[in-house]
Design a protein that fits this description.
single chain, about 210 residues, alpha/beta, Rossmann fold, seven-stranded mixed sheet, 8 helices, about 40% helix, binds S-adenosylmethionine, methyltransferase
Length: about 210
């Protein structure tokens, strides 16, 4: 049994997520990669492995079931904006091989880390992009973010990347009523979904958004 495998498996059970042994191994390998390269790439301020498991891996794993419910298992394209070390993008790529995941970050080292993780974890459907999201024009079915920006900035900076029928998935702490009130006119929230992250005593939610029908 690898270090942290038991708490990871307990967390997956609490989230009702069924993953293969290979996927559990990839999640542990991914966390090892973050720890190994953190000093060089400055990926995260969270240093303790047990904290990294709850604050980063399990927190990101909490969006997998809601995302799958949204996609219904269809093969879609997802853009993770301001992905940093790949959260939640890499976790989604590990859990959902049918989703083609692009992680964009303005910091070259972070995008390089994602590329490196894609090779090391054998995730051919994962790529790291070094760019400001505002400059991207390819379209995605789901545009996600975690700890990125206000909802208004997130949707306006990434607006050109959202497919016609696409949705935004914003990971937030407590229900961001002020940010929702400040959204641009053409955008609407269609669901705010409370999340429970195993081992994390903090409020978490997903804000689902889309363009208003004109
Ligand atoms: C606080 S970090 C969050 C990283 C990761 N999503 C997480 O949850 O740990 C925000 C990231 O957004 C990136 N970023 C900031 N502005 C950006 C932009 N306009 N386009 C793409 N990435 C951006 C930063 O470089 C940073 O890595």
């Amino acid at each position: 049994m690898r270090a942290l495998e038991t708490p990871l498996r307990d967390g997956l059970a609490a989230l009702n997520l069924s993953l293969s042994d290979a996927q559990v191994g990839q999640l542990l390998d991914y966390q090892d990669l973050i720890q190994k390269w953190n000093k060089v790439y400055n990926l995260t301020a969270v240093r303790e492995p047990a904290d990294m498991l709850t604050h980063h891996l399990l927190d990101s794993l909490a969006v997998v079931a809601p995302l799958r419910r949204h996609t219904g298992g269809r093969p879609i394209r997802l853009l993770d904006v301001g992905s940093g070390a790949g959260l939640p993008g890499v976790v989604i790529a590990i859990c959902c091989p049918e989703i083609s995941v692009s992680c964009v970050d303005t910091v070259a080292k972070k995008a390089a880390f994602i590329q490196q993780a894609a090779v090391a974890l054998r995730l051919a459907h994962l790529r790291g992009l070094h760019a400001r999201v505002e400059t991207l024009t390819e379209r995605y079915d789901v545009v996600s973010s975690r700890a990125f920006a206000s909802l208004a900035d997130f949707v306006s900076w990434s607006g050109d990347t959202l497919a016609e029928q696409g949705v935004w998935l914003a990971m937030k702490g407590r229900h961001p009523a002020d940010e929702i009130a400040a959204l641009p006119a053409g955008t609407e929230v269609f669901h705010v979904e409370q999340l429970t992250v195993p081992g994390l005593d903090a409020e978490r939610c997903i804000v689902w958004l889309r363009r208003k029908a004109s």
